[in-house]
Amino acid sequence: MSGRLTNQFHMKFTIDFLKKIRVFSIIYVLVFLILQNGCARKGFVSESVPPHLYDFKRELPALTHKRNPVFLVYGDHRPSWSVAEGFLDKRNWSKIRLLLFPFYLPGLLFNTTFGGTAYLRRLPDVGSKMRKRVLNQIYQEVSNGGIDFIAHTGDIVENGTYHTQWEDFLIEAGVEKPVMKLVPYYPAPGNHERPNEAVYGKYNYDTVFPNSRFYTKKFKDVVLIFLDSGILFDQNRDFPSFTVQDSLYRKYLVSEPDSKKASWLEEQLTSAQEKQKIILIHHPLFSYGKHSRNWDKTWGLNLIQKRKEITQLFQKHKVQLIIAGHEHYYEHNVLKYVSEGKNYNMHVLVTGGGGTPIRPLVSLSKVNKWLDEDMQEGYEVEMVNRAEEYHYCIISVTENGINIEVIRVDDGEIENRIILDEFLIR
Predict the structure, then answer these.
(1) Which contiguous run of DSSP H or E holds residue 133?
(2) Rounded mean pLDDT of 120-141?
């Protein structure tokens, strides 16, 4: 009797096990088919994207450089992942929200299922609504005239190794709302463009924006210097080694103290005769959001020391304004310092509200903690303003200074534009 029961048990166990195997096999096959047939693939822009999409207005007329410019700047409008903004966002797992179970958690799990599938397929699935609103308002702004060019602080695409993402951007900004056909478009590359990834990233970025990693634009009273901060922060490990990364830092940004050859940036600043100097770079020297402590990371050699070297170089040459992105909101900070017995201010404008989902502001207690830490390192930084808003900036240069107007974006219509902030740098 016991033997019969044992056999029945084994038979039932075997049948149940085979059923489970069959279910998992079906799921595996479906996932495999989805990933094989519905995934974005890495590739070269030049081989897959029609050339007319990246054949846009590259340069200003020569006469424009003999006067002072008015330009529009924005950044961080790449698409994103709903699973990153939902399931993987630790704010969604707070005790208060979990107390709402079962009303809240099912929605989060739904987000995980469909958002996770999009992530596995490498197809960004969130952010298009506000990205298109921002772009629509910028297009209206440029169409009205008076804007000489657009500058971008980086993170144009989610991953620059995927040619399809470049194609999506070029269709949006070159066909649907063709700002790139109206005025020149000057970017400072962001980490998501992967401009230092040797196979696809660098090639794709250079195809769309040739000679646009380290370059200058000179006008009557201002010089704009565009930098690739990817040689500082290599979070994707795109460089073969820290040694290679460090050698590029010394070549382009700050040379060794005992070097007889100046870096590219040192040469540009030394030769600049213009009254105003503006730096455009993706990673800010000073910001107080999610990425505030990036300089403490191990994404490069001696990042804390390198921030000091870059800051001292900017102070030496009296750089008035640094325009950056990376943080997904608006922030205005001022670094105060003394040089040759005189007081100076170096403004850091963080404009990361171009369409990527806005991040919440960090608590003031944490901001004050970081400000104190920076003070201990010798940086007297004052946070002047910040806002959890989508936006862009219009910058007007005169012989008397730099005027900055920060425009909030709501519905994407220019008649509803709201000035979020405005200040003058003398």
Answers:
(1) helix 128-143
(2) 84
